[in-house]
Amino acid sequence: MDSVSFHQYICDLDLCSLPRVVKICSGVYFQGSVYEVSGNECCLSTGDLMKIIDVQLQNISCKNVENGHIYELPLDFKGLFQPSSELPHGAKRKSFSRGSPFRKDKFLDCQQPQRYTIQEVLQSAVLRRKRLTCPEIGTSEVQLYPTYKVKAIMHFRNDVVQINSTLDVEVVDVTKESRHIHFIKPLMLSEVLAMEEALPAEAEILEAPESLPVFQSDWFSHLQKGCQIHIHSKSSAWRVLASSRKGKTRTCYFLLSSSYEGCFRRCPRRFSCTSELALSFATAKKLQVIVTKDCESSEGEFPLFSVGDRLEVLWVARANKPSAMDMLVCCRDNGDEDREQIHVPLFLEAGFVEDVRDSRKYTISEAVEHLQLPCEVKVLSTDCASDPLGCSSVLTLETRINLQFLTISLAKEPALTFDIPPQWLDMSLFFTGGPAKATPPTCSPAVEELTEAFYYRLLKLLPSNASAPPRPPKQKDSRCNMDLRKAKGGEKNAAETSKLPSGKSSSTSREPAKLPFSGPKQTGASGSVLNNLNEYTMECERQRFQECSKPEKQTTGTAFSDDSDHDYEEVKEVYEMTSKLQRAVIKH
Questions:
Q1: Which residues pair with 164 in a beta bridge?
Q2: Where is this chain compositionally biased, Low complexity type (predicted)?
């Protein structure tokens, strides 16, 4: 069969003979023609095959033969057309052999003129070539030019291609010669997840995954172009992201399946500050820790921690004023049923280890259900050869992952079965139509090792449930600046006090004085710790007084305040302290 224009082929095509396969013979360019098809580029190169599956009438153009005016007719036009007696110059009737894909022309020459509907005119090749008259349009002769929308399947096209019949290419019908040809429809592995009714299926990889390597497994290297795989079904197992340190520098990352049969034992958690205790207590019913690092407040206001102290977190006391700070209320066990309640600031740096009194063995399902993730567990495995986690003494279970996986095996090595997450490892493939079983020959591995690069990429993709740490209070003036200001004020006060007459008391004997404390930790005569910042240990020697004392302005009836720190003192204590200092000065 000789090549014809694509428009003529579609106009003469019998829709009952679909689908038909045509071959592109020539286009606008020798190497191929690129056309804009429904917003997408469609390249029709010479020699390409196209399987036509549907033809729909899009519009009908009517041309006035006398003046050349062209306009469109509605698809449901009800007027009747009458052909003229003469065929256009060069028009010939075609005879079609039996089994031809084209319509058999029912138009016959009659002595009496006949009228035809617009559908009858379009179905007849002879009527389309004749000049027609229609009383509903006018007295002038017209010709009809239909345009069709053609739906076709092409090689390596994901979607059905929609092409206008006016496409300027030459085609030839090769349906009989192409019955053995299978038109490849590329699919992404992520699209197969929504095609559960098509599984199991045999597929061939068109393009290898372009993303970062995900798994450090033997089967990952087989996923190359041309590799045939069997896609069995969706995997119903969920996963847990875990990590484990091997040696001092290397860290391994794993993806554990819910089908993992190993057991774990809970390990105590470690905390480096009290804010971590507050975050863990927010999601735990009970939290008991042991102090692993001596800790004391720099100003002696807060209680001291010693190595071995046992603390039980009770609640978090929120501050009512902006200038105050949140506190962690704990119960310290001093032994012999001696328990005291203490308040600890949330920003205090210390060292704690969780007091775990749990020897229960957990499966992976029980660990996710009962333990707070992330958590450290000890792997209880006796067979290191079959269990990849057997060599890991301590494992960190980080988070649960609920993604859909596909169970896949290699066609050449059916025993090599594995699960692939299409969201992480997408690739292009097509169904070959070969046989595949719903049940894989072997089970997928319950533990897969991840690459380090993909692990950190995965952390960015996963949602974080960790709450923000508490906001630390505003920092006060440094101790050095405070001591410097107080020392200068003390020297000035000592010079004024030395001028007082002997045996007489000054009129400012009731003026309160504030002295700097000598160190971060102050103790009284009994050796007990002074927990109040406004309690100081004083030395009444004259030389000490002249170097360090600093008088403050008198506040009648109320406690005085320092503008920098707002430390308040009781009037009685200030009066007694000042009197002792002045008597010591007068005595000398």
A1: 149
A2: 497-509
Is there a contact between 469 and 555 (Cβ–Cβ < 8 Å)? no
135-176, pLDDT tens digit by residue?
888 888 898 999 999 998 888 777 788 888 888 888 999 998
Please give the structure tokens belonging to residue 148. Answer: 């069709």
Residue 32 zone, left/alpha/beta (φ > 0; ψ -120 to 50; rest): left
CA distances from 53 to 39, 58, 87, 163 (A): 20, 16, 33, 12
In 258-385, the DSSP E strands lie at 263-266, 270-273, 288-293, 310-317, 327-333, 339-345, 349-354, 361-362, 375-380
The backbone torsions φ and ψ at residue 282, rounded to the nearest 5 degrees and listed phi first, read -65, -25
Give the pLDDT score at 418: 94
Kindly compute the dihedral angle of the four CA atoms of residues 447, 448, 451, 454, in this order, to the nearest 10 degrees. -100
Give me the residue label for tokens 């993909």.
Answer: 454
Burial (0-12, 13-18, 19+ Cβ within 10 Å), 504: exposed
* Residue 20, H or E segment: strand 20-26
Contact 202, 411 (CB under 8 A): yes
- Give the chain's radius of gyration (CA, Å): 46
Answer yes or no: is pLDDT of 120 > 80. Answer: yes
